[in-house]
Design goal:
mainly beta; Jelly Rolls; 7-stranded antiparallel sheet; 1 helix; 12 strands; Fe2OG dioxygenase domain-containing protein
């Protein structure tokens, strides 16, 4: 998002998520400075799932903190082989470095607050 008008056109509106897996996302807040970040509310309706994937970035290290606001009655489990830290409702991981997925949501919907940022690699 490069302009305020671009942000205002997309913020607080449901949009289809990637991977064609049935989830929706709503941009809440984003900024490029001082630390590039984005924050979304993600809605997983019944029957949606996300296949295993990574989210590569051009440079740096991508971090994401997901907080489960509303769990589904069954399914909708976040799967990540090497999370940085996780509990039942909080998942902190590197989406660029760790393959991750969400199992099929059954019996209701699931909502997640997701905040992500990219740290630039430091010169060695």
């Amino acid at each position: 998002m490069t302009t305020l008008s671009g942000y205002l056109r997309t913020a607080f509106r449901w949009q289809r998520g990637r991977q064609g897996s049935g989830y929706d996302k709503m941009l809440l807040l984003t900024a490029r400075w001082p630390l590039p970040f984005d924050s979304y509310l993600i809605r997983y309706p019944e029957g949606s799932a996300i296949p295993p994937h990574t989210d590569p970035v051009q440079t740096g290290r991508h971090y994401r903190l997901n907080i489960v606001v509303k769990a589904s009655p069954r399914g909708g489990e976040f799967i990540c082989a090497t999370p940085i830290w996780q509990s039942r409702r909080i998942k902190f991981f590197r989406p660029d470095a760790c393959e991750h997925s969400v199992t099929r949501v059954e019996g209701g919907s699931r909502y997640v607050l997701s905040v992500g940022w990219v740290l630039k690699d430091r010169p060695t």
